Fold this protein.
Amino acid sequence: MLYWWGSGQDTAVVGEVGIEKCPVCSGQQPATPRRFDLVVNYTYRHIWSFFSWVSKREYFKVCSHCHNTVGDKIAGPELTAMLIDKKDPISLFRRRGWLVGVLLLGLGFSFAVYAGAENDKELTAHIQAPKVGDIYMAELSKISSGYTYPAYGAMKLVGIDGDTAHFVVAKTAHERKKDARKDVYSDKVKKDSYYANDDTEDLTKEQLSKLRKDGVVYQFVH
């Protein structure tokens, strides 16, 4: 099972921190000098195993020969001195993976704002100069008497008489916008069978503009 939220632990070698006698692995007298490495044990959190960040670090001296930790956890001034001129051994992906999530959210938000602005511009233009065949998505329960609950769906312009536009509305509407949006993606709204031809709503250009301003009519369908 893939969990969207989780955590993990790993180890990375920071670099060499000198040569000294290892009290663990050397059985010789005197003890044989060994190279010691500074090692970081770290805990990381992640979302969908991709957007990650390091939540905890602990540093230790480790013998390069027997790989045993020697001494207590290293911190404070001693650790600061050991880290001078050493690169962070934890991968950028592990440390800053969360930035990818922020970037994607930012791009998604920017695209949504842009798409919304373009939709508003296009919707306004078509309402100012309506044409037979135009299709709008709307909260039909605020337009048609046939709906008495929050209902979203399409309405199609079938005729223009002076300043009055004649619309037919969807036979079946949805309680949620996202469900009505599926009808747009599947092109159902472009089929004549989608509409109740005996349910005609007449709206003046002024009424249509107000409905657009109030968010009742919210999308033009290509």
Remarks:
- The helical segments are 76-83, 92-128, 177-185, 205-213.
- The chain is about 30% helix and 40% strand.
- Residues 106 and 209 are 32 Å apart (CA to CA).
